[in-house]
Amino acid sequence: xxxxxxxxxxxxxxxxxxxxxxxxxxxxxxxxxxxxxxxxxxxxxxxxxxxxxxxxxxxxxxxxxxxxxxxxxxxxxxxxxxxxxxxxxxxxxxxxxxxxxxxxxxxxxxxxxxxxxxxxxxxxxxxxxxxxxxxxxxxxxxxxxxxxxxxxxxxxxxxxxxxxxxxxxxxxxxxxxxxxxxxxxxxxxxxxxxxxxxxxxxxxxxxxxxxxxxxxxxxxxxxxxxxxxxxxxxxxxxxxxxxxxxxxx
Amino acid sequence: xxxxxxxxxxxxxxxxxxxxxxxxxxxxxxxxxxxxxxxxxxxxxxxxxxxxxxxxxxxxxxxxxxxxxxxxxxxxxxxxxxxxxxxxxxxxxxxxxxxxxxxxxxxxxxxxxxxxxxxxxxxxxxxxxxxxxxxxxxxxxxxxxxxxxxxxxxxxxxxxxxxxxxxxxxxxxxxxxxxxxxxxxxxxxxxxxxxxxxxxxxxxx
Lengths: 249, 205
Prior knowledge:
By secondary structure, chain A is mainly alpha-helical. Chain A is built from 12 helices and 2 strands, in the order ααααααααββαααα. The longest helix of chain B has 28 residues, at 2-29.
């Protein structure tokens, strides 16, 4: 049943890639950096129109995620924070990040960024050995090799795919059609997905990852809400801007 | 004749280099990056002053920071751009009220950030200048291995003077002005300008 589902996902992924590759062929890859023309127009902050036909539903899930944070994630992460020291939590964060090397390597390669591919492979080699299974990041702290955080959604974008429409997923948070498809790709490239035995281990790992990263970001969401007049619109716009700049980079 | 030339050239050369150094330093002082740097350094100086530490000194510290930052930030331009097309057709009173309220919100966010300052380093990465507009890219090292990319969008206050002021801050690719504009647009779609002002006022508490 599970493997059948995986095959289906795989087919879906291949299908999506093909479509994107075709559309990219027609349009050509996006130019890198466009500061000059941006500057010439002066204002630079062109309003971004986010297509959001699901707004009513998205707003409901925004409320849901808001409560999920304040009622569940935050208290749990706070408790976790008092028990686990900061260094250990950064280590866990590094560990999960290191584990996702295939996501970055494959997407750097697909985007023709071979320098990025070799950077990511080098980082993985250094951090998995000298960095004790990825818990530390000597590649960055000693060798000054910074990561290239490329994901599948960015690869789709790089080849000309637009964002489609905005989707605010329950639990997972802000996304759009392109990045949701990208997330499927990222999942297939994440080794954690293939963790089977024992049955609950994968979910335990995912849960730990989430609580750990929340514990390192406590207060950020609160601050974001304090500055916003309409937090949903602010989040939607920020997500779109952030992804656009990540694709351009 | 030849000898004469040789005798004079070191002095001439030195004067020439001297003038060159002087000129470049003058030009340097006027670049957008240097102006951002000067402002940042001054703010950091205030923040690291031991006599301004602690809750009871917060007010004094904020006042000092405000005086420094006000010179570099063009709050009015920020407000104007954030309001976009809705800026047009508003009375002088509405505009100045908006600038006051929105400016206070921006300032509050900035001060909250500053209160959390704990020795982060600022690195100046890149600068692009095009006529009256400029972009200055900096990276703020929050902790070992973590950086926040910040881009200051600036414009020249006037054609003659070489003063650059910030009209937008882009954090990790997210423009502050653009983000607020989307919120204002959405609110003004189904509410009046006075209701928007009311919302801004409610944020003050």
